[in-house]
Design a protein that fits this description.
GO terms for molecular function: cytoskeletal motor activity. It contains three helices and eleven strands. By secondary structure, it is of the alpha+beta class.
Length: 178
């Protein structure tokens, strides 16, 4: 994905990763069929395990499923949907300029999602492609080492990335909502 190569520092191993699509084989799971039946031609573009950072800065294991119309945050045991985001409601995706696994899905008129995944490039590529196909417009991909995002409720947080001798340092700060 050209946008990443031009603006984001990457690890060498990132260039060797293959996109796997529905790597968890969710299409054949009974619990998933009801989500796919919401649309006549819904197709799973990506499925994989991710970590989600909640509003209390606790990491939660999740399964992320991207279809051609929705992004699903699923419970990893039951595959029950914790949240579904219509792809055309996504405002942008924010990432740092550094080689890390964090990304924020920014959603219009709703709270945002902070995810951590080694498959970030594939996830973002799939969402960008689905957004373009649905809306006919490109999805904004934001690059910054300081990313503000809206948490559930009234919280706004700032994710700050910096390079250290030991690697990449990631900090989360509480901010006042404007």
């Amino acid at each position: 994905m050209k946008a990443f190569f031009d603006k984001k520092e990457r690890r060498r191993s990132s260039d060797l990763k293959e996109f796997k699509g529905d790597s968890l084989g969710l299409e054949n799971k009974k619990a998933i069929k009801k989500y796919l039946s919401k649309s006549n031609n819904s197709k799973i573009l990506f499925s994989g395990k991710v970590q989600k950072m909640n509003k209390r800065n606790k990491i939660q294991e999740r399964v992320l499923m991207v279809t051609d119309e929705f992004v699903y945050n699923l419970d990893p045991g039951s595959y029950k949907s914790k949240r579904e985001i219509s792809i055309n409601k996504i405002n942008s995706i924010a990432v740092s300029n550094l080689p890390d696994n964090f990304f924020v899905i920014k959603v219009n008129d709703e709270y945002d999602y902070l995810f951590i995944s080694p498959n970030k490039t594939e996830i973002i590529s799939r969402i960008i492609g689905a957004y373009q196909k649905l809306t006919g417009n490109p999805l904004n991909l934001l690059f910054s080492d300081q990313i503000e995002y809206d948490c559930r409720g009234k919280d706004v947080k700032e994710l700050v990335f910096s390079k250290t001798e030991d690697g990449i340092k990631t900090q989360i700060f509480q901010k006042k909502k404007k």
